[in-house]
Amino acid sequence: MLRHSVLCHHCRNKIYFATEARRRSELPVNFSLKCYSCSQILNYYNNQVLAETGELNRTGGAVLGGLLGLAASGGTAAILGAILGGLIGESYERTDRQAVEEFNNSV
Ligand SMILES: [Zn+2]
Predict the structure, then answer these.
(1) Three-state SS for 21?
(2) Residues 16-64: pLDDT tens digits?
(3) How far apart are CA 35 and CA 89, in angstroms?
């Protein structure tokens, strides 16, 4: 999961906003956002947007592992589920990091 943000021109706080954009060209060149902390509505350019990975990734992987472990019965299966879940979580994270790099290197 990608998280997109700009730095507030007024208070330098990070403003996160929801978008599915994988590169900057998928965002409007110019758009206004309201800052959560200082409430200023200001104009931003898509080249000021930075992507980062969502912090929930690892937890997501762990939860998924837990679920897989639960689905299969027995102690060994639970351990296998946890390992598998860990692997899935990590590959998600790698994909995310690539997506972040792609976005941040995009024009
Ligand atoms: Zn602000």
Answers:
(1) coil
(2) 999 999 999 999 999 999 999 999 999 999 999 999 987 654 555 555 5
(3) 32
Amino acid of residue 19 = T
**Which residues sit with Cβ closer than 5 angstroms to ligand 1, an ion?**
8, 10-11, 13, 35, 38
* Spacing, Cα 49 to ligand 1 middle (Å): 15
Alpha helices in the chain (DSSP H): 57-71, 75-105
- CB-based contact 80:72 (threshold 8 Å): yes
Which residue bears the tokens 């998924």?
64
pLDDT reading at 68 higher than 70:
no
Q: What's the predicted TM-score (pTM) here?
A: 0.64
Taking the centre of ligand 1 as the mean of its atom positions, its distance from the CA of residue 5, in whole angstroms, is 12
How far does residue 22's CA lie from ligand 1's centre (Å)? Answer: 25
